Amino acid sequence: MKGKPKYLGMLAGLLLIALPAGWSWAHGNEHHHEAAEGREHMRQMVQLKEQIPEEYRIMDRTPVVSDERSLQQGAALFGRFCVVCHDAEGHGDGPAGKAMNPAPADFHDLEHSATYGPGEKYWIIGNGSGATRATAL
């Protein structure tokens, strides 16, 4: 018991140092709305995952061989069908994507991307998510 207050003080000091600038102890409605949107988005992702046929869920790689030809074909298809929603860089904020709910995937978000395995991503690319719909055009 003798050493606990010293360690508690050190722990509190470390927490204060580690907190990001501008962080506050208050948890207002602005964070609640973002959390609710995040939960809804995860629910939709899980729902989509359940729709993917088993043979795609168990694939540990896609059937497409990554070579010069497939990369060129993929780039052409992405430019034709995907850029309008995902943007040219794949951030999910293309002109049509801004009016969609849920928003198109940001391919740079590795945590989001890790939700689906290679076969599941292959199926989604070929079949679409079905969950994304235009909210205003």
Can you give a write-up of this model?
The structure is a single chain. This protein is an all-alpha fold. The chain has one domain (29-134). It has helices spanning 4-18, 29-51, 54-57, 68-86, 110-113, 118-127; strands at 100-101, 133-134. The longest helix is centred in the first third of the chain and has 23 residues, at 29-51. The termini are far apart. The relative contact order is 0.12. Mean pLDDT is 77; it is low at 7-27 and 133-137.
Secondary structure elements and pairings:
Elements (H helix, E strand, L loop, with lengths): L3 H15 L10 H23 L2 H4 L10 H19 L13 E2 L8 H4 L4 H10 L5 E2 L3
Antiparallel strand pairs: 1-2
Main sheet characteristics = 2 strands, antiparallel
> What order do the helices and strands follow?
HHHHEHHE
Percent in helix = 40-55%
Share of β-strand residues: under 5%
Integer count of domains: 1
How would you sum up the global shape?
A: globular
Structural class: mainly alpha
Low-confidence stretches: 7-27, 133-137
Taking strands numbered 1, 2, ... along the chain, how are they ordered across the largest sheet?
1-2
Task: State the helix count.
Answer: 6
Average pLDDT rating: 77
Q: Span between N and C termini?
A: 65 Å
- Rounded to the nearest angstrom, the radius of gyration is 21 Å
Quick one: how many beta strands?
A: 2
What are its keywords?
137 residues; mainly alpha; two-stranded antiparallel sheet; 6 helices; 55% helix; 3% strand; disordered C terminus
Could you provide a short overview of the structure?
With 137 residues, this protein is mainly alpha-helical. The chain is built from six helices and two strands. The chain has one domain (29-134).
